[in-house]
């Protein structure tokens, strides 16, 4: 009987310890992720945009640095793809020859952008943070070239916003790559 009580008491003690320590470990991960985001975002050109974007993605709240890198690379690829789709939809609708040519050129730039981002992702997965950074920078340059070519034209406002958002997201990717 005494052995049973000791065994029961030991098991109950372990259970109590687990109940009190497990929530604190869970909070530690979230706090570490929050700290990580708060460390990264000030190193971007637009810290408030960075915070807004990363805080709007539920997975980012519990991600480590590599998880944040993958999340932002996925987001950049998604934004580039949606911008490219929009540009391609505008080409046949546009009657202004200069604007049509600018959209065609932007389409080529965004094709290159997506390729650059896929290379950045490949380098990231291979542990090459410098290659990741280089290709993310190249993607930003391609999108910037589109922005430059449409600067003086009556371009669709969605494209201008897409270029700006893409540039800001790539800025987050670069900041994260610098922390890897």
Automatic annotation (TrEMBL):
SUPFAM superfamilies: Plant invertase/pectin methylesterase inhibitor
Signal peptide: 1-26
Keyword annotations of the record: Disulfide bond, Signal
Pfam families in the record: PMEI (PF04043)
CDD domains linked: PMEI
Limits of the Pectinesterase inhibitor domain: 32-176
Residues passing through the membrane, by range: none
Superkingdom in the source lineage: Eukaryota
Xref: SMART domains: PMEI
Family to which the UniProt record says this protein belongs: Belongs to the PMEI family.
PANTHER family per the UniProt record, alphabetical: PECTINESTERASE INHIBITOR-LIKE (PTHR36710), PLANT INVERTASE_PECTIN METHYLESTERASE INHIBITOR SUPERFAMILY PROTEIN (PTHR36710:SF4)
Protein name, as recorded: Pectinesterase inhibitor domain-containing protein
Organism field: Xanthoceras sorbifolium
């Amino acid at each position: 009987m005494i052995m049973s009580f000791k065994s029961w008491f030991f098991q109950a003690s372990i259970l109590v310890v687990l109940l009190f320590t497990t929530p604190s470990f869970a909070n530690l991960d979230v706090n570490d992720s929050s700290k990580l985001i708060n460390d990264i975002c000030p190193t971007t050109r637009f810290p408030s945009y960075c915070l807004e974007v990363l805080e709007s993605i539920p997975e980012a709240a519990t991600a480590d640095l590599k998880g944040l890198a993958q999340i932002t690379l996925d987001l950049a690829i998604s934004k580039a793809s949606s911008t490219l789709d929009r540009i391609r939809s505008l080409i046949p609708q546009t009657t202004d020859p200069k604007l049509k040519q600018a959209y065609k050129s932007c389409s080529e730039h965004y094709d290159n952008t997506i390729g650059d981002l896929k290379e950045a992702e490949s380098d990231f997965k291979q542990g090459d943070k410098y290659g990741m950074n280089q290709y993310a920078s190249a993607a930003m340059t391609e999108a910037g070239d589109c922005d430059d070519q449409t600067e003086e034209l009556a371009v669709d406002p969605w494209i201008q916003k897409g270029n700006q958002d893409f540039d800001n997201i790539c800025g987050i990717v670069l900041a994260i790559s610098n922390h890897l």
